[in-house]
Amino acid sequence: MKIIVACDRRWGIGSEGKLLTHISTDLKRFKEITNNNIVVYGRKTLA
User: Fold this and answer.
1) How far is the C-alpha of 6 from the C-alpha of 16, rounded, in Å?
2) Residues 4, 19 contacting (CB under 8 angstroms)
């Protein structure tokens, strides 16, 4: 099992339903790594 997480200094991963930051290259890399693999999301991630 592998994990990818981006968090702030208080271990926060987002605020008000949004990501902490928007970095295009980071999102592209996430898609490359997770494509064709099982991904576990939180209950509100795709809402």
Assistant:
1) 16
2) no
Structure tokens at 19: 């990501």
Distance CA 12, CA 15 (A): 8
What pLDDT was estimated at residue 17? 78
Other CB atoms within a 10 A radius of the CB of residue 37 amount to 7
Q: What is the pLDDT of residues 4-47, one digit of tens each?
A: 788 889 998 888 878 888 889 988 998 998 899 988 888 877 65
pTM here is: 0.57
**What is the DSSP code string of 13-34?**
-EETTEES---HHHHHHHHHHH
Residue range(s) defining the domain that contains residue 34: 1-47
Q: How many domains does the chain have?
A: 1
